[in-house]
DNA sequence: ACCCTTCGTCGAAGCGCTTCGAAAGTCCTG
DNA sequence: CAGGACTTTCGAAGCGCTTCGACGAAGGGT
């Protein structure tokens, strides 16, 4: 192994000088710096991470904590993770992947052993058991999602309230007056995952505000139950012409169920989904949708974390604006509608 | 921060004694051990990871390297990742997530800086640029997937050859004689990702061996192109009654396209897929399938890695046997078939 | 010519841990 | 009861790095 002493000897300087060249914490003359850098290159020197973290109290590693319930939609989780890693690297940090199945102890361990400098919590729930722990740990942290009491915590997420509203506004602009929301499974609402509720609130608020009729119902993920939900909705509320779907897993089944009911999309019924682009583009017709900007959320959370590590004060809540992409599943309501 | 010296003082022993209690590398009397352990608990001591890695040359961290092309199916990747983390924890190791977008340098960096003891490479391709680097690094490693020249490398994967064969055998056992394989997109075959080719080889070998007719064609992932492929297949080869699908992303579209052609599954056509269970269970009818045992592969790779870290010799190739689950998409060929 | 800065570099201490050799204590054996 | 063989614990060195104080050399003002 090549050590800083080897580099120093090769360059004819003191080890501390090499350290200062690398960290830039003191001025080093240009000629010396060049000599040191070239020695580093020649010898293929890489600082020993452990030694560095021992001496400097900084590991340059952040923890990325996966949610407790892996019921969460995996591809989106993965997109988050990739964005977090990529962004962290831009700040010269690495990422330690921590699962919650050790319980909160895993978090405590990586923090207390000085393995990580800071923490990103993914897919935070309203009553997340990891959150109290986070408060007692002294490490900077950022949450993706919102817990019940986010005071003093830094949280990042898509603005689901706005997302729900954006869907309503889009449908309203096309002339639709009778809207429905097919949301997450009932269990998700009960569990109190914030995003489902916030979407529903945004949906209801917007329909109210615009003087439209809006029905919000939960929706399971399994094909047959989806069919049942759709059946119930369409028979009880045949007047509905605009449908908002906030349930990635059920999207495909819902489209099938609508077809089975003889409702053509978008001719008879316009559909807007809140889901990743890839899901929206894999249906027939493609879905107008509000995407979950996983990359943006991941990148933003790391950026905030780095600012906190630098001692900056950052805003408590960062809500990323929804972006609605119009595709093939929404169309204007025909002028003469039976009503 | 609580250090080993604090613990030693509290327990009335030398720091080295505490260290030996923790590592078990020397015998410590039961009474002393109890005293030390209780001090550790009382003080809430966690060893400093950096100091430990500096002194012992072991970081107890392994690198998990994501594939270069994130085109790979993300949920499966995530399942791998979770399994790797969970298993690593059982061996008291943590996992550093490394993306390949820094190029091979990222790998070199984490290895050379002693940040990780060993490396797991996910989704290895036939001509993977990371593989030569792995050979020059001295760290133990395990690959998930097979490169073109796996000599001397430890590789783990589903046995795709057997998987292709298993699908054929299942269909054959139901009396089907004319089979087809809808595989990965052409680009995947060209790129040389081993698993696609191995499945095809297994499929063709088995049809050959059993004296069946077998047609293997590639298949894109987009809905309209899938429809075109299915159309071509069914019109050119109307005799086909058994279909093997090895393309997760296209599964749903294929089912739709078959229906559009008036082919009922499984009445007119039996379908077996090679895909994760969740995909197989979300179609109508549910799909008989060979699953990609992501958890098993992830766990197995870590287990092998740990054995290598302990200096054991492990087998070069670990092929996990396919397991076929019969669901609703396969049925016996009616005795009298127009042929 | 002198003192006072400023700049660039060096040397040494110390981060918290592991590990090796040795010391102290215990127990047999002859 | 001396001497060997263990057992259990200690002390100190050292892992590779950062950082702080200090020092010599230049430069500026008087």
From TrEMBL, chains A, B:
The keyword Transcription regulation applies. InterPro entries: HTH_LacI (IPR000843), LacI/GalR-like_sensor (IPR046335), Lambda_DNA-bd_dom_sf (IPR010982), Peripla_BP_I (IPR028082). It comes from Luedemannella helvata. Keywords: DNA-binding, Transcription, Transcription regulation. Residues 2-56 form the HTH lacI-type domain. The keyword Transcription regulation applies. One of its GO terms (molecular function) is DNA binding. It holds the Pfam family Peripla_BP_3. SUPFAM superfamilies: lambda repressor-like DNA-binding domains, Periplasmic binding protein-like I. This is LacI family DNA-binding transcriptional regulator. Transmembrane segments: none annotated.
């Amino acid at each position: 192994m090549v050590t800083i002493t080897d580099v120093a000897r090769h360059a004819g300087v003191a080890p501390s000088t090499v350290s200062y060249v690398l960290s830039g914490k003191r001025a080093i003359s240009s000629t010396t710096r060049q000599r040191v850098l070239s020695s580093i290159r020649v010898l293929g020197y890489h600082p020993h991470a452990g030694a560095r973290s021992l001496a400097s109290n900084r590991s340059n590693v952040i923890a990325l904590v996966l949610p407790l319930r892996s019921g969460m939609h995996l591809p989106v989780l993965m997109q988050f993770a990739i964005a977090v890693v990529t962004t962290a690297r831009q700040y010269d940090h690495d990422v330690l992947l921590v699962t919650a199945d050790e319980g909160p102890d895993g978090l405590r361990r990586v923090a207390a052993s000085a393995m990580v400098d800071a923490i990103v919590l993914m897919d935070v729930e309203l009553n997340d058991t990891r959150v109290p722990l986070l408060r007692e740990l002294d490490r900077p942290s950022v949450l993706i999602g919102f817990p019940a009491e986010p005071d003093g915590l830094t949280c990042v997420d898509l603005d689901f309230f706005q997302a729900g509203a954006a869907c309503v506004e889009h449908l309203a602009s096309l002339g639709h007056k009778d809207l429905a929301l097919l949301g997450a499974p009932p269990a998700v609402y009960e569990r109190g995952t914030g995003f489902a509720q916030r979407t529903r609130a945004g949906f209801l608020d917007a329909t109210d505000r615009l003087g439209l009729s809006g029905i919000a119902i939960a929706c399971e993920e399994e094909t047959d139950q989806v069919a049942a939900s759709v059946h119930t909705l369409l028979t009880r509320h045949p007047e509905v012409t605009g449908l908002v779907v906030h349930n990635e897993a059920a999207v495909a089944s819902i489209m099938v169920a609508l077809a089975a009911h003889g409702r053509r999309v978008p001719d008879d019924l316009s559909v807007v989904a809140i889901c990743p682009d890839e899901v929206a583009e894999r249906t027939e017709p493609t879905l107008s949708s509000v995407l979950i900007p996983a990359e943006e959320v991941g990148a933003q959370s790391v950026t905030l974390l780095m600012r906190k590590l630098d001692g900056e004060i950052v805003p408590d809540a960062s809500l990323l604006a929804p972006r609605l992409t119009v595709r093939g599943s929404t169309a204007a309501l025909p002028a003469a509608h039976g009503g």
